[in-house]
Design a protein that fits this description.
By secondary structure, this protein is α+β, with helices and mostly antiparallel strands. It has two domains: 86 residues, no CATH class; 208 residues, no CATH class. It is built from eleven helices and four strands. A four-stranded antiparallel β-sheet has the order 2-3-1-4. The protein starts with a helix and ends with a helix.
Amino acid sequence: MVENQNSTKLIDEDEIDLKELFNTILKYKFKIALFVFITTILTLIYTLSIPNSYKSEVILSPQGSQKSVGGGLSSLASLAGVSLGGASSKDPFIMMQTTLNDYTFNEKIIKKYNLVEKLRIKENLVFAFGVDSIYNTFNSKHQKGEDKRSEDEKIFSTINSIKPILSISSDKKSSLITLKAELVDRYLAKELVDIYLKEIINKIKNEDMKEIDAQIKYYNKELSSTYDVSLKEQLSKSLSGLYQKKVFSQANDYYFVSKVVDSRVSYIKEKTKPKRALILVVSLVTSIILCIFIVFFLEFLRSDKENESKSS
């Protein structure tokens, strides 16, 4: 009987606590509603101030790998400090990724195409419901004002701003390479993809051509100085392969890769972010939970003070 009475008391206490909690919420319902309303409105204003982001991408297929030129001559050439590994023996994705992350390379591209100004001054922006007044209020002065930073600071800042915009990835199954740019200016997003694809390919191609020229020069030197017939035959074959590679490289616009899907300007409704509806829902739920927590905390402090005053 005693146990049943204790359990009944506990149930009654739980019911009382739940009633008190519910009554506390009802007591502050207008304040809670006002807080949630203001928070939601501010969130809505914030989401309307964010321009849409768009992506442009190019999908590339690596050319079929070939055996590197040189064969048994690789050890002989290495003694002279000449590498026989042609471009085909390297991973196209690794080469492109390494080049994209190279600071010096990015610095040259930024200066060549004046990307400091292009990325600083926002153009071709698209907003939800066409509401751009909120954005213009906070950003018009910044865009029109003169950038007084030093040249090095501008370059450094632009490189850091490009990092989250440009990305390169490779599909392990298909080996397809994707170079992508995501930006608020959908036209500039395509332009950046085209610029970086062109410059990355040219840089890798030029470096490989220098390497091939060094190999040709070395082989010609060895060919003129050797009297060994079998060695001359190997050198001649290697030279022929190098000349072929040099000629074939000029025939392909993208050197060691080919385009599968070309870059394009995204359609105005193809935005990638922001997810405005999701932001509003999260803001609404979070504000309700936060406000209820604050109400309970304040009520706890108030009741605690009342208990202290009664005890004193």
